[in-house]
Amino acid sequence: MGYKLLLLITFIACLFLLSFKLDKKKKIIFFGDSITEAAVDKGGFIDLLQTMIQQKKMGQNYELYGAGLSGNKIYDLYLRIEDDVLAKKPDIVVIWVGVNDVWHKSILGTGTDFDKFGQFYNAVVKKIQQQGAKVFVVTPAAIGEKNDFTNSQDGDLNSYSNWIREYAAVNNLAIIDLRKIFHDYSLANNPSNEFKGILTSDGVHLNAKGNALVADEMWRVLQ
After folding, report:
1. Structure pTM?
2. Which secondary-structure segment (H or E) carries 49?
3. Is 173 in contact with 129 (CB distance < 8 Å)?
């Protein structure tokens, strides 16, 4: 009888521990630049994701955090990853960076050279993976919304996006290809080939439609 009682107690304890593990919220950190920084504001894509999760009655499953900082490039992410990401012990990190690495070359005379971009990107990913978190990567969406590739930074932006796609494929990482998604959307919804005002307010930063689209695409992959 004592042996059977011990087995029963052990079984119940295992069920309790399993239940605790299943109920643990997944902590998701969105790591990036000003686009991500603004995403925690009302109507931003992180705010919209929070609302979607609550509406689906899945609030007990996820915790979302923004770790975006205006002007950041990939090496800025590398320099602040310990305090802003790893110290929070995330389960998933979504990396969305690249616009400033390209954009700042022309507007500020800075930026990130193509080969350095890849080296820092890989270092960021490896640091996250070494702590046991999953990595989701995002291609930089737009620097101008013209759909015929006549935006001045389209060449570099496509090159950096292609690198992220290849890196994700080689390293078996989930990818949210916003570069392609935004371009396809502009082809379908920007007949006048406008530079801004379709999914962005200025060619880069998201407007309401852009935030809604990004939230939908993030959720589609994250869930």
Report:
1. 0.88
2. helix 45-55
3. no
* Residue 38 falls inside a structural domain: yes
Residue 137's beta-bridge partner residues? Answer: 95, 175
Per-residue pLDDT, 110:
86
Domain count, the chain: 1
Helices (H), 74-140: 74-84, 99-107, 114-130
- Write the Ramachandran bin of 71: left for phi over 0, alpha for psi from -120 to 50, otherwise beta: left
1 falls within a domain: no
In CATH, what number is assigned to the domain containing residue 86?
3.40.50.1110
pLDDT mean for each 10 residues of the chain (223 residues) = 58 55 80 98 98 93 97 98 98 98 86 96 98 98 98 97 98 98 98 98 98 97 88
Range of the domain at 207: 25-222
The contacts of residue 213 (CB under 8 Å, 6+ apart) are 181, 182, 185, 199
Q: Kindly state whether residue 20 falls inside one of the protein's structural domains.
A: no
73 closest CA partner among 128, 118, 131, 135: 118
